[in-house]
Amino acid sequence: MKAMKPIFRTKQYIKYGFVKMEHEYCCCPKCRNILNAGPNYQPEFCDRCGQALDFSNTEWEEDKRLGFLKPEAV
Ligand SMILES: [Zn+2]
């Protein structure tokens, strides 16, 4: 089976309840399962469908801070 490059997506989340962050995460190219991968750990296979994964030349981005949530109007 030929290894495929994972697909990268970005997702926003809220840190500390008010900081808007953007996180880049990678998905299986075959079943779109979100892979538990990062700069220190890259699985060789998708844990859901078994697709072989190729993380060579992957550049890992740090989470980006997009801004702050506006405080609720009082
Ligand atoms: Zn998969």
| Alpha-carbon Rg, integer | 16 Å
Gross morphology is elongated
Beta-strand content estimate: 25-35%
Mean pLDDT: 93
What hetero molecules are bound to the protein chains?
zinc ion
Oligomer: single chain
Main sheet summary: 3 strands, antiparallel
Unreliable stretches: none
Helix content: under 10%
Q: Sketch the topology as an H/E string, one letter per element.
A: EEE
Total number of distinct structural domains: 1
Secondary structure elements and their pairing?
Layout: E1 7-15, E2 19-27, E3 64-68
Antiparallel strand pairs: 1-2, 2-3
Bound molecules: zinc ion.
Any overview of this molecule?
By secondary structure, the protein is an all-beta fold. It has one domain. 0% of the residues lie in helices and 31% in strands. The chain is built from no helices and three strands. A three-stranded antiparallel sheet has the order 1-2-3, with no helix packed on it. The structure holds zinc ion. The site of zinc ion has 8 residues, from loops.
